[in-house]
Input
Amino acid sequence: MATPLTGVLNEVEHLFAEFLRERGQRQTPERFAVLKALYESDGHLDADTLYSQLRSGGIRVSRATVYNTLELLTECRLVERHQFGNRQAKYERAYGFRQHDHLLCLDCNEVFEFCDPRLQSVQEMVSEVLHFEINHHSLHLYGHCRRDACPNLPTAGGTRRDVRG
Amino acid sequence: MATPLTGVLNEVEHLFAEFLRERGQRQTPERFAVLKALYESDGHLDADTLYSQLRSGGIRVSRATVYNTLELLTECRLVERHQFGNRQAKYERAYGFRQHDHLLCLDCNEVFEFCDPRLQSVQEMVSEVLHFEINHHSLHLYGHCRRDACPNLPTAGGTRRDVRG
DNA sequence: ATAACTGCAAAACATTTGCATACAG
DNA sequence: CTGTATGCAAATGTTTTGCAGTTAT
Output
């Protein structure tokens, strides 16, 4: 971590403030509270967890405001929204941290991160060949981690069967 | 399309039948109807669209059965489930068609497909370096297609703003 | 002052579940 | 026959919406 969190937090608060000002939207304490909570908790949180954390931290916000703010933060790219295969979206801070992709353990649901520069080339080539203006991507690798801490849940009903061998 | 649909359909029906038999599960007409409907409609459908198509085709199934069957078909890898950023899952036939990734237009929501062999190498390297057994992946590129047919919806509220330039 | 934002609760939406009935094995 | 699968409707869990009251500008 090259930049201490306080520095990052300060920067993103200013960026968010400016974003709101330019759009003629209000700078409310609730909005900054959501931004702060997300940047203080490093990880991939869903909206409801974030909501609970704010509430137990003594901050009186509503779920609606949390969702609304996460939308704003996603729009100005200070936060990234991920859909990891299930219905519930997860959010992650996106400023001052290296761009990366995700590795999901199907046993323990843990999220790991990795980088591979080849993704950039893939993106550029596809963009060119298919005449598509690419905005962003999401690459998720699903599998089984080999950590001791991983429960490695046994498959329900015995051996996993797959028609394609 | 190298293999005519009838051939593919026949094959997948047999594969599904065998899968069910091995698991001691019943081969009901509803299950085969879902499989058929999905293989006849080439594209990326959500469960409810599939349900409607079946109903308007005169087949009496329930939503519950459609979901249940899609789960079975996903388990035996005859069907792939995708989560394209929104809350609603989409399903696609996965047997006898080349493996590919997806390109999503943020304006018209159209889904395009592409292949890039480098993805395989990325997957292998990550697997090795991070000691992870990779099962499958999903790569989605989001952006704007440049087709005439694309509505290219103007952004609500004027120019798109992005804090990061 | 006033339009935008908030909290709350209700609505919407996709998916899952419970249970009585139907039917494949 | 028997237990598994089905249809239906109600329940669930996440996100969105409507509205009366609050607040940043």
Remarks:
- The first strand of chain A starts at residue 45 and ends at 46.
- Residues 26-28, 46-48, 63-64, 67-68, 87-89 of chain A lie near DNA strand D (CB under 10 Å from a C1').
- Chain A touches chain B through 55 residues (CB under 8 Å).
